[in-house]
Write a structure and sequence with these properties.
Layout lengths: L2 H7 L5 E5 L4 H11 L3 E6 L10 E4 L1 H11 L2 H6 L7 E4 L5 E5 L1 H5 L2 E4 H12 L4 E4 L3 E6 L4 E5 L5 E3 L1 E4 L6 H7 L6 E13 L9 E6 L2 E8 L4 E9 L10 H11 L7 H8 L6 E8 L5 E2 L2 E3 L2 H4 L8 H18 L4 H21 L4 H5 L4 H13 L8 H10 L10
Parallel strand pairs: 1-2, 1-11, 2-7, 4-13, 11-18
Antiparallel strand pairs: 3-6, 4-5, 8-9, 9-10, 12-15, 12-16, 13-14, 14-15, 17-18
Helix pairs in contact: 2-6, 2-11, 3-11, 11-12
Protein name: 2-polyprenyl-6-methoxyphenol hydroxylase-like FAD-dependent oxidoreductase
Organism: Streptosporangium sandarakinum
GO molecular function: FAD binding
């Protein structure tokens, strides 16, 4: 008897509320439906979020999950097809190339395109509630009473926080995010703009002490993504006030050369502006009672690792599989899920440690030293070591079949 038929014969904790409709949430909803559960996804945004930076998949584990979901071909069709990225000087002269596999893995795709593929794969048999968010949760022996910001209260068997770095579920179930979010000393921003440099499946990066600004083409060169990183202590701002965030970015990059002034001018009209700290989430446990965390909400490795999206997809597969294998027994399933994922997530986080100072050097000497290393990279015997190390990290988990 397979896992799905077991659940049909003995329903237990089948109604699952998932907070977050970006990547981890819809991926989990897909697998829960495959295993016979009834997921509901609630998302604060009024519609599916477009935009965002490029994310990548690398190695056997990532690609296996995509293949088992039946979306590998869709992801490949939407891939960015990026080549090498170039460091440039203030006048735009190319100084050094960074190989594609270092930035893009096996498949690179825009986060918004991946979210759309996952949504289309689940929309017909998963309930989505947009424009709302969890306000409170009250757990008892038999389930969780959930109060929403706008909708009427509802009752669920389990609640999953797949709602990112600033997880609402984590705050409600575990306490303030200040206990768990570790800033790495950087802030970042990304938005869509015109491909005014005529970049052809490539990008340019410009470094000054404490600042990194870049532009890379996307969607077959029809547009471009502007990216900014800058060293900064923890900032105090309203996470929902993009106007305030844009002012912070404009002040941080005032006087920086290259194409920075033009990009800052375009920023004010950008429809998909994103701004946040570069941070990791460190927790001793990912579940409490009937609530469990997934993806960045549980163990955000930060954008610097290049592992967050792949880790979230793998985690969704494992969490749904362990719930099915345990017949819906959340205590057993949550413990096994964490046992399977803990070391893997730790490896993904470790890959980002120390990257901040290398990526955004603090002073001119370090910036010069790194530029010399980038220039020599194509000629040194160990040029592929970083990409190979990232692949080993991405593959450091053995996936179970979970009866499917």
């Amino acid at each position: 008897m397979n896992t799905t038929s077991q659940l049909k014969n003995k329903p237990r904790n089948k109604n699952v509320l998932i907070s977050g409709a970006s990547v981890a949430g819809p991926a989990l909803a897909y697998w829960l439906r495959r295993h016979g559960f009834n997921p509901t996804v609630v998302e604060r945004a009024p519609a599916l979020r477009d935009g965002g930076y490029a994310v990548d998949f690398r190695g056997r584990a990532h690609l296996t999950v995509l293949e088992r979901m039946g979306i590998l071909d869709d992801v490949r069709r939407a891939r960015t097809g990026m080549g090498a990225m170039w460091y440039v000087n203030e006048s735009g002269k190319k100084l050094a190339a960074m190989p594609a596999d270092l930035f893009s893995g096996d498949i690179e795709i825009l986060r918004g395109d991946l979210a759309r593929i996952l949504y289309e794969a689940t929309r017909d048999d998963v309930e989505y509630v947009f424009g709302d968010s969890i306000a409170a949760m009250t757990e008892d022996e038999h389930g969780v009473e959930v109060t929403f910001e706008r909708g009427a209260p509802r009752r669920f068997d389990l609640v999953v926080g797949a709602d990112g770095l600033h997880s609402t579920v984590r705050s409600l179930a575990f306490g303030p995010e200040s206990r768990y979010v570790k800033d790495l000393g950087l802030h970042c921003a990304v938005f869509t703009t015109d491909n005014f440099l005529g970049l052809d499946h490539t990008g340019h990066l410009y470094n000054t002490p404490g600042r990194l600004v870049g532009l890379y083409s996307s969607r077959n060169n029809t547009e471009a993504k502007a990216t900014f990183y800058f060293g900064s202590p923890k900032q105090s701002y309203d996470r929902h006030d993009t106007g305030q965030q844009k002012k912070i970015l404009a002040e941080a990059f005032a006087g920086v050369g290259w194409e920075t002034p033009r990009l800052l001018e375009a920023m004010w009209d950008a429809p998909d502006f994103y701004f946040d700290s570069v941070s990791q989430v460190r927790m001793d446990g990912w579940s409490r009672g009937r609530a469990v965390l997934l993806g960045d909400a549980a163990a955000c490795p930060s954008p610097l690792s290049g592992m967050g999206t792949g880790m979230a997809m793998v985690g969704a597969y494992v969490l749904a599989g362990e719930l099915a294998a345990a017949g819906g027994d959340h205590r057993t399933a949550f413990a096994r899920y964490e046992e399977e994922m803990r070391d893997y997530a730790g490896g993904c986080q470790k890959g980002a440690e120390g990257t901040a100072k290398v990526m955004v050097p603090e002073n001119r000497f370090v910036a010069w030293f790194m530029s010399q290393n980038y220039r020599l990279l194509p000629y040194v015997p160990w040029k592929g070591m970083i990409a190979k190390g990232a692949r080993r990290t991405a593959e450091a988990i053995t996936l179970k079949n979970y009866g499917l």
